[in-house]
Amino acid sequence: MSTTDLTGQKGLKTGALGLLSSVVVGMASTAPAYSLAAALGFIVLGGETLVGFQAPGIIILAFIPMFFISVAYKELNKVEPDCGTVFTWAARAFGTRTGWMGGWALMAADIIVMANLAQIAGSYSFTFVGEVFSNPDITAISGDVLWSTVAGLVWIFLMTWIAYRGVEISARLQYWLLAIEVVVLIAFAAVALFRVYSGNGIAESALPELSWFNPFSLPFGSAIAPAVLTAMFIYWGWDTAVAINEETSNPKKTPGNAAVISTLLLVVTYLLVTVGSLAFAGAGETGIGLGNPDNAGDIFAAIGPTLFGDSVLGHIMMLLLAASILTSAAASTQTTILPTARGALSMAAYKALPSHFTKMHPKFLTPTWATWGMGIISAVFYLLFTLVSPNLLVALIGSLGLLIAVYYGLTGFASTWFFRKTLFMNARNFFMRGLIPLLGGLIMTVVFIYGLQQFMLPDWLVDDAGNNVTIFGAGAVGVVGLMSIAVGAILMIWWNLVNSDYFKGKTLERRAHTAD
Questions:
Q1: CA separation for the pair 70, 241 (Å, rounded)
Q2: Collapsing DSSP states into helix, strand and coil, what is residue 199?
Q3: Residues 176-201: pLDDT tens digits?
């Protein structure tokens, strides 16, 4: 069998999406409202040292490596617009086994996050309905593990079905879901800043200062590093815009531009909400302050009632906040299925996975086995972790960071090495294809090493009773991350024994870029 280039030949619907649709999918994949609700409080808390009002600086600091990696995605996509993204690019640059593990890291991260997103979507379904009908009994069900799990499984099935029906339907749904999120987030920040600047804040309110954007006055190990690690999670997901590259109107240009634009829009949105929240609520460790650990789980629920007041308008705004978090988690559940299914499709097309994953729907032009397989595996994973311990769902967030660092970092290094023969042709190549992606890869490596070191500590995660959440005596977060990588290595060895054509380079050869 000769080496093949299957770009645009996998049966996906070509030309289905434009730049705007790709940006929308990229932004929606990060779940902005949910990410801010769940992570902003932890960013403000930092580690052993409170980050406090320097949180906007942390948001910018975490954006830098994400932007660097988005540049790597953009440049690699120009010459190799394959829906396998990191799988294909790493295999081209470093060889088949590295490519396989890169593809696995992406799929494992997506499967793991589905469990967390489904749990949030399931829980907030009852919160939202309870707010609509002003029924506290329905709202209380959101804390019931059984019913929130059932609702979460329903969301997984529904979003898998929509993804199965076609990428255009998926994109149209995202327009509405993302619009709700962004409008509510901007309204939240605008009301907060208006109240502060008009003198109608609370005792803890503070006018924004330029010093808030400088995090370097904080200690690195006990504040900056753990806060950045958390902040990087809220950016993750924009690469979905590139995973749908073979279905865009201009595969070599549109997806890469969408990835970069998505990251830029995200940093603006996150900074606006972060500054507004801190300005109104402050960074205090009591009351509605963002430094209060009791508020970290959902900063909108903590700040919202005080910000909007106990009026009809206030209740409407709280309803919209609940709706934004619900739609955010639901939207991200759906957009998470897209890159995983397409990654599996690409791996199967190059014979790195069983050929069943190349099956396409004749009408919808979507990967049938890959899409439904992603949904089913995610549902089983979600159910398994919930049955073992709902606390493990919290551990998943940290382990995600490790997998994200692996495949983002690998993409940065792949760009530098793949383009090594043309880096010095001009200044643009040197910076955009070499230095910037390399710096992104190095930062991700540091993040992985530091994160793993912290996550393996037995007391990194504790349950509601104050007990350490561990696996084999080590921190559950770190162990889950390492086990995810180990499972990938075992599956790679098994498939190498079953069908070695891909691993011998017969279907996807290792090569360097030689000319533009």
A1: 10
A2: coil
A3: 888 888 999 999 999 999 999 999 99
